[in-house]
Amino acid sequence: MLTIQSNVSLKSYNTFGIDATARYLVEVDNDEDIQTLLQLPDVQTLPKLILGGGSNLLLTQDFNGLVVKINIKGIRTVKEDQENVWVRVGAGENWHEFVLYCVERGLAGLENLSLIPGTVGAAPMQNIGAYGVEIKDTFERLEAVHILTGQKRVFTNEECRFGYRDSVFKNELKGEYIICNVQFKLQKTPVFHVSYGDIQKTLDQMGVKELNIKAISDAVIKIRRSKLPDPVEIGNAGSFFKNPEISVMQYEHLKLMYPEIPGYVINNEVVKVPAGWLIEQCGWKGKRFGSIGVHARQALVLVNYGGGKGTEIKQLAEKIQSSVEEQFGIRLHTEVNFI
């Protein structure tokens, strides 16, 4: 049974804890609810905001339309062979809890993506990634409902056009589909990814003798908790900016002026530079401006200490972008979506 609420505070629906108001809000528990909802004449004319865990958005104003909160649950094995297991997951499942579900059952491929906030349905939209692994590496397909027609469609890995924190759902199909479920192809025999970041160092500190996916998951959780604030304690959306990719020539030029600048070569053509390092060099790390600021341990994270406005965080982000561009000639782009 669908219940559409009016004038709902979205403070508890976004990890920044921004107290914006939705004109209408409805929670959906299955695909049929979505299709029924989209057939309602009054709903068809309203602007819509599809909401998962609210961990990748910044509310800069009230939303004068319908917020659709996706609560579709369920995890089931679709098929398996000697090497792989295919798992289908409801879009409303908590991402980290799903990763732990896989780790506990020895299903490899997602362990490096432990403790990333949000829901399963939002993961392919952003092509979430961490520590050398991205969603696209294990993603097989998803089912989505077209908002205008109510028709279901299957998207394959190729059709999602995954890029760095990017997909077709952030570009030409932005705002056109509601993701209902996602299917992953996971491995019974793991391929370990421990060279990125501090994973190997943390594993050594933990005294891990025999490598396994639970140890990697535990190490990633330990690293993330040491660097990133808990949204329950301090409002944030994790990494606010993407790590920029620049040409090898530009990187070499910057290295002459800043010998300590870190970078990771990709395909011998481009270099990924940590956005957090650039922001820190510009003096933003740990800066506080009233109710908002830049986190003291991770310059990549903008925070709401309580009572901050989305417009204030947006203005801070723009100032950071300008200062980084002025000093390094690099334009930072946001991971977070502005509403």
TrEMBL record:
Its main location: cytoplasm. PROSITE patterns: FAD_PCMH. It catalyses: UDP-N-acetyl-alpha-D-muramate + NADP(+) = UDP-N-acetyl-3-O-(1-carboxyvinyl)-alpha-D-glucosamine + NADPH + H(+). The keyword Heme does not apply. Its EC number is 1.3.1.98. Residues 18-189 form the FAD-binding PCMH-type domain. GO terms for molecular function: FAD binding; UDP-N-acetylmuramate dehydrogenase activity. It is found in: Cytoplasm. Cell wall formation. HAMAP family: MurB. This is UDP-N-acetylenolpyruvoylglucosamine reductase. It comes from Runella rosea.
